[in-house]
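Subject: Neutral metalloproteinase structure
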Amino acid sequence: MTLIVAAFLAGVMATTALSAPKAVTLSSRLDNLVVDRVRGTSSVVAGEFKFAAAPANYAEASISFIASRPDLFNLRDAGNELKLLRQETDRLGETHVRLDQVYQGLPVWGCQKIVHFRDANTIYMVAGQTIPTPRVSTTPKVASSAAEATASSSVKSAIGTEPVKTSSELMIYPDNGTAKLVWQVVVSGVQSPTIKWRVFVDAVTGAVVMQYNDVKEDGPTVSTGIGVGHKPYTIQTYQFGLDYEMLDASRPMFVPPVSNLQGVITTYDNRTGQLYLDPNRDNVFDDDSAMQAAVSAQAFAGLTYQYFMDAFGRNSYDNLGSGLTMTVHYGTNLNNAYGGGGFIQFGDGDGINYLPFSGDLDVVAHEFTHSVTEYTANLIYTFASGALNESYSDFFGKMVDSNNWLLGDDIRLTTPGFLRSMQDPHQGPNPARFPFGYQPAKMSEWQDLPYSNDNGGVHINSGVPNKAGYLVANVIGRAKAAQIWFRTLSMYLTPDADMNFWSSMTQQAAKDLYGFPSPEVAAVVDALDSIGFSLVFAVPTQIVPLSAQLGAATDTTISITSYRNESVIIESVVSARGKLNINGTIPQSIPSGGTATYTVSFNGATGYTTCDVGAIFDTVVITTSSAAQPTMLIPVEVNLG
Ligand SMILES: [Ca+2]
Ligand SMILES: [Ca+2]
Ligand SMILES: [Ca+2]
Ligand SMILES: [Zn+2]
């Protein structure tokens, strides 16, 4: 409720004993006075209050002006009851000094005065809702722990779930004009921007004075910002009331309401544990240099999500639309990033060798891919399977950040300017690590390392499959290579996959997608051959079915197509169990790209007995003249009637 000056003078001044105003201004003209009758003091004092000279310190000038007029502002000791929060000068050259009301060092909840300077010499308004100097003891009778318990159960009964974090602060609460000593307890969920209740517990009686959820839902919006390396980005954010927060609810995975945090990409500040928000609320995330790590993370995670969606129709790392939670400023000057389980923590880098790790798209995509792997092959993070795990992260890192084959090239400051090279794994920060270079690039360079060394060399031996990925993409392009790699990872590999299994499954995925023979499979076989899986034929992992009745064989054929630019002599084709008849030319020379065909039939007379009725697996063993691939096994399924 507000009244004009006449009522104010009659209603408030008449009941308040005041000392005579000190004149800190040279001249004054009062144009408007609005009184907050509930609080018993002015909320607006407007006019013209001129100083003899421009104040050296606007905050001090503001406070001394207010102190000089207790008749207007009802503060007995303004110098100790007002504290500078912020001073800003706008484009008109006007300066605005925002002061928090305090009492004996305690905040007075929600009470501020803003002193507005038209020019350096002139205050044109003092506005803001404060209360007269409180007349309360600042010694609580209720312990903070008791207040927190009260607040927690109060919020729990309001929202139905158990909140997890509380913090409390002693303050003055203006309860309908009556100053009360309270504990303000903030009750929140774990890193949840949508549960942030403020509960005011009377510090004398222990009663809840007031509580509310301090979250305002507005909607997804688009912000701009400056990322690592001072590069500008557009980022997807969310507007909560006046706040712009690093919460991307724009992706197909998002499921409203936003309060459920389902299918959102968020970036938190490890130093505060809070969601990153724009401190000055202008929707431009350029407020300080520490913010750059968050801007890059938010921008790059969005691009990575979109890559997996566009390339594979995969809805987030788990294909269930689960959100991604990122934290920047992790650790202290940490030269690392950690990913998995839908979380990514980015170190800031030491500023000497590395920029903040979120500053490179391939690093962000690498960490995101660790979560993809977790929800697909779930490759165990040790030894060969761990090296494959690392390699898939590198591979998709360079699918998303596709301008070269270097990992970490946008954050590594010192020589060689990157972390790893898929094109040439021998290159790297320490090229003398092994006689051949930084990372192995083929199976003959594979390092059998103990777990104590990089989980068994997961960041070391990853160079071998990395090289294969590069070689394949170099022939058939990144897009097709990515389809093969993703199919292998998501459909075929199992947690303890080793390199041989990976080699077979990669060929299988290529055959599934592009047929055989095909340039795509040839590229895969070539690449596998060049890293040390010496192959003449693409390994036929399909089972050749052979239907048979006891004593009445039904023939089937096996076709063997030679890959590789040389002719190969097939020296023998035999049944591993000796129970299949094989007819065809032996030995037989087949040229590159040529095919040899053998007829396989069931031999009841010398083979299976009635005890074997059912599906039986046998193997046809093919022996060749090639030293690269001397034998090849083709599984045969014998269906006995
Ligand atoms: Ca801003
Ligand atoms: Ca790049
Ligand atoms: Ca990069
Ligand atoms: Zn990794």
